[in-house]
Amino acid sequence: MIRLGVVCEGQTEVEFVKTCLLPHLLAHQVEAVPRLLQAPSGRHRGGRVTVERLANFLAHEYPAFHRLTTLVDFYGFQDRAGRDRATLELAILHAVQAQVGKRFNAQAVLPYVQMYEFEGLLFADIAHFNWVHDPLPEADRTALTRIRSAVASPEDINDSPETAPSKRLHRLFGGSYSKTEHGPLIAETIGLESIRQQCPRFHAWVSRLEAWGE
Length: 214
Description:
By secondary structure, this protein is an alpha/beta fold. It is about 45% helix and about 10% strand. Strands 1, 2, 3, 4 and 5 form a five-stranded parallel beta sheet that branches. Helix 1 (about 10-25) packs parallel to helix 6 and helix 2 packs across helix 3 (about 85-100). About 35% of the residues are buried. The mean pLDDT is about 95.
């Protein structure tokens, strides 16, 4: 059994790993253990993601796991500075290598940045937003359908940080939508396979995690 540490940006991603990713990967001989991104003091500072902060935490966790990966949002990076997803992931890998030194195995660390946010994955099946309102009002269903149908993949829902998937959901549902409660619940109800079918980057990441156990 491969022990995999999944460094998560926030509690939403932690719950998603527990409810969706962990049961699936166990069948592939991979035990996914969510680790909440923290400061050296042990405090969690949600949303304040940088390459350096991620690398520091990954280097700290490196001795405790056979493999390490990340689940962080592209929009969560404070030091994106025009860099794309692949560039950020490579920067994280190199920063971890610099800290770990000679013990570092590049095949054991897989930085993953979710485009554009975790909440985008929930648009794989808008019917399950009835966890927020049941029954889902027709106006809300129409608005969600319009957002989803405008793009090829839920991973492409993006205009700017101000119109990111989570911001759209909060504007639509207001205080009724809870990121930490509804996000993992909707994802679990949709199912990992349905999400993978519509989200190629996410699918590629999960496939590489599966391969670690095979």
